[in-house]
Each structure stands twice: as structure tokens, then as C-alpha cells.
Write a structure and sequence with these properties.
The protein is of the alpha/beta class and 310 residues long. The protein has one domain: HUPs (Rossmann fold, 3-Layer(aba) Sandwich). 50% of the residues lie in helices and 11% in strands. It has 12 helices and 9 strands. The strands form 3 sheets. Strands 5-4-3-6-7 form a 5-stranded parallel sheet, sandwiched between helices. A two-stranded antiparallel ribbon has the order 1-2. α3 links the parallel β4 and β5. α2 packs across α9, α7 crosses α10 and α7 packs across α11. The longest helix is centred in the middle third of the chain and has 20 residues. The structure holds zinc ion (2 copies). The site of one zinc ion has 8 residues, from α1.
């Protein structure tokens, strides 16, 4: 097989786009897609400091690598990898080991924030408490809500203007579908390649530079650099509803490659148009407890914290 771009022998086949590529053209195409996401959604730029949520998995490793690569042609662009240590015995400790190695190799100054320090309890302890209190919240909901707040606090503390997340095309499509299936209209308006509608006081923008990148590409990209990543899945992973959306995307991709990207483009256009004709902003209130912007009286973070008696 020949590379469809340059005619040299192809060593890479991408399922979602049915492309045969050589390594050089693959790398170029990958970076082009990230630059395109950046151009279309204004994610990051010169004279800026951003936090990268780095878990050591393949997607966030690819994100760190590509940002580092693109930063070579940028001025005064600082990348700060942040690792949130949830405290899952036998899992996050191993993740952290890999994260430290990668950051050292890339010569990046890693910052570690832990559940233990921020909440006074590790996720393991929190889940134990949940069971003792007879609560039904899923591990991923608890973990995700707390992680999100810790990342925001970390970014604010470090003076970063954005938090880059390693969410790929499949992850994005999943969230769009989930919000649709659950009729989460406001959530839908707030979610995107760049989350939020405009800069809100107290909230750091969440950006997804890998929005047009598939998992398979992220994995291949890390391999190009010979970078290692931590592969095992989180032991707490059991997302009943997200799983439905995920399986839909996986099955659709098998039959109709490129479906995830189509979902992203469709919802991005829809969101843009809806925001244009929406005269008022999505009404965000200030949480009565912590003061963070929220859709209800009390933010999800505080609700959860209270429930769990943290
Ligand atoms: Zn080529
Ligand atoms: Zn709150």
C-alpha cells in the first residue's frame, strides 16, 4: 500500500477515514487537525499559559505531545501539565509514576493536586463513605464533579487562561448524544470544543484540542514519539448511561466510519445557530455556598460535598 498523500510506502491505516498514510504524512495531518480545531474555536494562542489535564493515558499523552510540538512555532506559550490524584489505590499511584516520567522527558514542570488535600479524603475513602451513607451516586459522577472543580482551582491558582482536556472525537460525540438523550438543553449549550458561552468570572475555559482526533490517531501519535502511556482502565469505571452512547458510536463507526465527526459538526453548527438567536445568556446563578457560577441555587460540587458529608 502507498501513502495517499505522498506515494511512499504506507505503514498506517486509519479506520475512521479509511486512509493509508506514511508516518510523516500522518504526523502532519494530525497536527493540522489540531491547528484547525484551534483556528475554528480559538483555543490557545501566543502569550498564554494553559493547564493540560494530564492523566498519563494515551489521549492526554497525545495532547501533551502535540501541544509541545505546536508550541515550537509559538511565542511565549506555556504548558503546565496538571495531574489530579484521586487516590485510587493500585491505579492512580501507577498513573502518577508514568506521568512523572513523561513530564521529565518532555522537560515540563508537573503540578500534582490531590483529592486528599483538596477534599480531605481520597476517592477510595469517599466511595466507602457513599456506601455507608447508602447513597446511589456513581463513582464516575463523584470523581468527575470533584476533578472538574480541582482542575479549575488549579488553573486559577497557576494563572492559566484555559484547561486543555484530552477528549477525542468519540468522547465529544458521546457527550453530545448523552445531553440529547437526557434532554439536557442548557448543558448542551454550555458544552463544546470550547466549553462555556463566554468568559465567566471564576470559570476557566475548558478546551478540547483533540476534538477532531480519534482514539486510534491519539494512540498512533504517542507511538511516533516512542512515548509510553498508562493503559489500564479505571477500576471504578461503570457509566451506565454514557455506556449506551459510547456503544452507539462504536457500532456506528464500524458500519459508517466517520460518524463521530459528523455528530460533532452537526451539534457544533446547531449550537452556534442557537446561541446566535438566543438573546439572553444561559442564566447562570452564583452558588450560595461557594460562589461558583451554576445553573441552580447550589452548584453540583457543593451538593455532592454536602451529601457525602465532606
Ligand atoms: Zn506520506
Ligand atoms: Zn458551590
Amino acid at each position: 500500500m502507498r501513502c495517499e498523500k505522498c506515494g511512499r510506502p504506507a505503514t498506517i491505516f486509519l479506520h475512521h477515514s479509511q486512509q493509508h498514510l506514511c508516518k510523516r504524512c500522518f504526523k502532519r495531518q494530525f497536527e493540522k487537525k489540531v491547528r484547525r480545531a484551534n483556528r475554528e474555536y480559538k483555543l490557545f494562542h501566543n502569550n498564554q499559559k494553559i493547564v493540560v489535564a494530564f492523566s498519563g493515558g494515551k489521549d492526554s499523552t497525545a495532547l501533551l505531545l502535540v501541544l509541545k510540538e505546536l508550541s515550537k512555532n509559538m511565542k511565549n506559550f506555556e504548558i503546565i501539565p496538571v495531574f489530579v490524584d484521586e487516590g485510587i489505590k493500585g491505579y492512580t499511584d501507577k498513573e502518577l509514576g508514568q506521568v512523572k516520567k513523561t513530564c521529565k522527558e518532555l522537560n515540563l514542570n508537573l503540578k500534582v493536586y490531590s483529592f486528599e488535600k483538596f477534599l480531605g479524603a481520597s476517592l477510595d475513602q469517599i466511595l466507602k463513605r457513599r456506601d455507608e451513607l447508602g447513597l446511589s451516586e456513581r463513582a464516575c459522577t463523584i470523581c468527575g464533579t470533584f476533578r472538574k472543580r480541582i482542575l479549575n482551582e488549579a488553573a486559577a491558582e497557576l494563572g492559566a487562561k484555559a484547561i486543555a482536556l484530552g477528549h477525542t472525537a468519540e468522547d465529544m460525540a458521546e457527550t453530545y448524544l448523552m445531553n440529547t438523550l437526557r434532554n439536557e438543553y442548557n448543558q448542551f449549550l454550555l458544552f463544546g470544543v470550547r466549553s462555556g458561552i463566554e468568559e465567566r468570572e471564576g470559570l476557566v475555559s475548558r478546551i478540547r484540542p483533540l476534538a477532531f482526533i480519534y482514539h486510534e490517531e491519539a494512540e498512533l501519535y504517542t507511538q511516533l514519539f516512542g512515548a509510553k502511556y498508562y493503559a489500564p482502565q479505571c477500576p471504578n469505571r461503570a457509566e451506565a448511561f454514557r455506556g449506551v452512547a459510547r456503544n452507539f458510536i462504536i457500532n456506528a463507526e464500524k458500519k459508517y466510519p466517520g460518524t463521530a465527526l459528523k455528530i460533532i459538526h452537526y451539534f457544533s453548527i446547531l449550537r452556534k445557530e442557537l446561541l446566535k438567536c438566543k438573546k439572553e445568556k444561559v442564566a447562570l446563578k452564583k452558588c450560595k455556598i461557594c460562589g461558583y457560577p451554576t445553573l441552580s441555587e447550589i452548584c453540583n460540587f457543593c451538593k455532592l460535598k454536602n451529601k457525602l458529608e465532606l
